[in-house]
Specification:
Keywords: Coiled coil. With 210 residues, the chain is an all-alpha fold. It is 70% helix and 0% strand. The longest helix has 55 residues.
Length: 210
């Protein structure tokens, strides 16, 4: 069978006949052969193999074949064979980590691309106007989005922000003290009202007893 076709898994043991192994492959792809005999000739086996190969190829797209070949290539590169030395192990494991985090890495690269476009949007226009195809480091560090006053905070604004923060901190302390005083007043009120209620009850009982 062609190397472009995925290898089907879970075939019968090697001790089984060629016909039974071929029948198992046909069953996996939903094909039932009209010929079933343990004494098939080489030509009959070859014909069934060709028919099976044609059936698989007819249901296999070019994109799938490319993906399969790329997967086999990566599997070969990442296969830790007996020739792997201890110096090569970190690189192998690093590649495996990159492949395992491919989706997250793609998202991170997209975000980096957005950041780069924001940094170099007007810088590229300046460089193209000057007739240069490359950008200097200072053009990136001095990009408008970095140096614009709309995206920076002056020292005066920082001082005002610090003063506002201190004001809110002081206000929070005063509110906490007021809460404590209010709690004490409520407790005192409850104590007074409880004592007064007891006095009223005693006075009422004494008045009734006369």
């Amino acid at each position: 069978m062609s190397s472009n076709t995925p290898v089907l898994e879970s075939i019968p043991p090697s001790s089984a006949s060629l016909e039974s192994r071929l029948a198992a492959l046909e069953a996996k792809v939903g094909r039932i052969s009209s010929i079933s005999s343990p004494q098939l000739s080489v030509q009959e086996l070859s014909s069934r193999l060709d028919s099976l190969q044609a059936n698989i190829d007819s249901h296999t797209t070019v994109a799938f074949r490319d993906t399969w070949q790329e997967s086999l290539k990566l599997l070969k590169e990442l296969d830790p064979d007996i020739a792997l030395t201890h110096q090569q192990q970190p690189l192998l494991y690093k590649r495996q980590q990159v492949l395992a985090a491919a989706s997250q890495l793609q998202c991170d690269m997209h975000q980096l691309d957005v950041i780069l476009k924001l940094l170099t949007n007007e810088t590229k226009e300046t460089a193209s106007t000057a007739g240069s195809t490359t950008m200097r480091l200072d053009q990136v560090t001095q990009a408008p989005i970095v140096t614009s006053p709309y995206y920076t905070q002056s020292l005066k604004d920082q001082e005002r922000l610090d003063a506002l923060r201190l004001t809110f901190a002081s206000l929070n302390d005063r509110v906490s003290k007021l809460q404590q005083q209010m709690q004490q007043l409520l407790e005192s009120y409850h104590t007074v009202m409880t004592a007064a209620s007891e006095k009223f009850i005693l006075a009422e009982e004494k008045a009734k007893s006369r």
